[in-house]
Structure formats: C-alpha cells, structure tokens
Design a protein that fits this description.
transmembrane, two-stranded antiparallel sheet, 13 helices, single chain, mainly alpha, EmrE-like, 383 residues
C-alpha cells in the first residue's frame, strides 16, 4: 500500500496516530505507557524496583503503626503501666517505622515522584487489613470497597505513570534548581505559606484545611529534596561520586528542615482533630503537592499524551476515594462509655453523674447547670 503524500490530510492523521502510538509505548521516547506485558517489564525494571521498595516500605510502616498501637493497648490494661518508651514492643515498632521510611526514601532514587508519592495509600489500606487480622477490629463493607478502589487506583498509577528515566546527578539538580519554572513555583508557594501561617499564628485560625495545607506545602519541598538526595546517592553508587558537590548538602539541609516543621504542624492537626479526619485529608493534600512538585521541578510529564494524564489522574482519584472509605468513621467505633458515680455523700446533693470525656485527658465535667452542689444551708459550693 502506497504511503500518503506529504500534503494529503491522511498523512497528518497518520502522523498523529503514530505519535499517539509512541506515547502509549514504554520503549519510545517521552512519557508514555503501555500494558503490563513482558516487554513492559523489561523496559521498566528500574521503575518497578522503586515501586516494589515503596510498596514494601508502606506495608512495613503499616505493621509498625499497629505494633505501636498494640503496645499502647496492652500497657493500658496493666494495673501499673510503664512508660511506653520502656516497652520493647514499642521500640520494635519504631525500628520497623525507620525501615519503612528508608524504603520509601530509596524508592525516590529509582522512580519518578509522580509514581512513588501516590503509593502512600498502601500504608493506609495495609494498616486497615492488619488491624482486622491481628487487633480484631471490625471489617466493614466500606473497608472492602475502599481497599478494592485503592488497589485499582494503584494498578492504574503504576501502568500509566510517566516513563521518564532520569539520572539524578548534582549538575541535573543544579540545573532544575535555578530554572525559571521552579523559581516561580517557589515564590508562589512561599507567598501562600506566609499568608496561611499569618492566619494560623496571628488570627488563631486552626482549621484542618489551613494546617494540612501548610503541611502539604512543606511536603512538596520535602519530596523534591528527598528525590535529589536519594537520586544523587544512587548515582554515586552506580556511576560517579556526587556527594562532593555542595548541592547535595544543601538538599540534605532542606530535607531535614522541611521534615521537622512538617511533623510539627501535623502533630498540631492530630491534637485538634480525629485521626480519621487527618489521615485521608493529609494523604490527598500530600499526594497532590508531590505530583505538582514532580511535574514542575523534574518535568516528569513532559511529552505525555492527554489520555495518559487523564487515566493517571483517575487512578489517583480512585486511591483517594479508597483511603477516605477505609478511614471513614473508624474513630467513632469504640466501646460504650461508662459513667462515674459519686455515690451517696452525706450533706451533698448530687444532681447528675459525671461522664468521662473521651477526647481529653480528664474525667470530664458536670452537665450544664450542675457545676455546683448545694449544702443544707443552701449555700453553693464548687465541686
């Protein structure tokens, strides 16, 4: 069959189809994707190794969180509980947490940010599965649906994530660090961060969206620096030493500083709101900020087809929805609260019982109108 002439409209259509086919082939140039075939595995062994590290790291984090939770529960059942930091079980959970975070850190050196960051949903779903199996928590229909959606989203993310394989050297990081895209992004991010911090500190606004947006803005800087540090370490092991460049230590300082302030703000959010609210919102905000950081700093979606981006974002949406369903109303499932009865106190009139406050450290307060008791002389005295 003869090829269409250069000026023929059919030639333009054929060129578009060829470009679309190249975008959907992992061996081609650019950020394409394809099916999970044998050729796909051979061409993406490095990315898959990063994905495997991230998934294993998140699962180990899930195990560590449940071990620490079990340690606290067992300590609460003892008549004379010891401090949690003296528990061998609690420390084993901390060690597993460090191993899991190390796996996540290493994963950024082998795969793009836009592929590794959304895999945090595996930590949430894995924690739910372990809680049901070992802590005897209830398995709800929303948990099963959420796990299914999270796994489906993970499949789409792995299959349709960008296929750009970058050797992260010190010169590469320096080039991206002074790029105009990153400069504009950082100016806007610093501006938004300062405005939100002003409302949080000066105006006393402690809404969960404000706190977790501050965390997400710091997280975008964290993932950029983490990938830079991890990538330069990987490049030093596989090719040429990169640890002698000043940019490596600059990125290390940025990584540590952003992590410290991020954890501080996240702790404030967990003190003010239930974990069932903080976990899904933080996962969504963190993933979005990480994806934007990867696109702007490392240009990970450069040359990707529209359908590729759409399916990738749909996979992110499924993972977000799965995390929300798994964590929804989980904190509200607790044992019925007991009441503390004063009993009969001579000369005192007790108007009601005291209900423990499950969200605080104290036993609770008297109901409205019963904050005082009457003596026989009808004089009111504070309880």
């Amino acid at each position: 069959m003869a090829a269409p002439a250069p000026g023929d409209p059919g030639a333009a259509a054929s060129a578009v189809l060829d470009e679309l086919a190249r975008n959907f082939t992992y061996g081609a140039r650019g950020a394409g994707n394809g099916s999970l075939s044998g050729a796909w595995y051979r061409r993406n062994q490095i990315h898959l190794f990063g994905v495997l590290l991230a998934i294993l790291g998140n699962l180990v984090i899930s195990i560590s969180l449940n071990i620490q939770k079990y340690s606290h529960l067992r300590s609460a059942q003892q008549e004379h509980p010891r401090p949690y930091f003296r528990s061998v079980l609690w420390w084993s959970g901390i060690v597993l947490m460090a191993l899991g975070e190390t796996g996540n850190f290493a994963a950024y050196g082998f795969a793009p940010i836009t592929l590794i960051a959304p895999l945090g949903c595996m930590s949430v779903t894995g924690s739910a599965i372990i809680s049901v199996m070992f802590l005897r928590e209830n398995l709800r229909a929303s948990d099963l649906l959420g796990m299914t959606l999270a796994l489906a989203g993970t499949y789409l993310l792995v299959n349709f994530a960008p296929n750009i394989t970058q050797a992260i050297s010190a010169r590469t990081v320096q080039y991206y660090f002074v790029g105009w895209q990153f400069m504009i992004y950082m100016i806007l991010e610093i501006l938004v961060f300062c405005i939100l911090l002003y409302f949080h500190k000066r105006k006393g606004m402690k809404h969960i969206v404000i706190l977790l947006t501050l965390v997400a803005l710091l997280a975008s800087v964290t993932v950029i620096s983490v990938k830079a540090v991890s990538g330069m370490i990987t490049f030093s092991v596989t090719d040429k030493m990169q640890l002698t460049y000043p940019i490596f230590y600059i990125m290390c300082i940025i990584m540590i500083a952003s992590c410290v302030f991020q954890v501080k703000l996240l702790n404030q959010a967990t003190k003010l709101y239930n974990t069932a609210m903080v976990v899904p919102v933080n996962h969504i905000f963190f993933t979005i900020s990480a994806i934007i950081a990867g696109i702007i700093f490392y240009q990970e979606f450069l040359g990707a087809a529209f359908l590729t981006i759409f399916i990738y974002l749909f996979g992110c949406f499924l993972s977000f929805l799965g995390v929300v369903l798994v964590t929804r109303n989980r904190e509200k499932e607790h044992l019925p609260q007991s009441y503390i009865d004063f009993g009969n106190v001579p000369g005192k009139q007790i108007l009601d019982k005291i209900q423990p406050d499950s969200s605080g450290l104290s036993y609770g307060t008297l109901p409205d109108g019963s904050d005082s008791i009457k003596s026989p002389s009808k004089e009111k005295k504070g309880v």
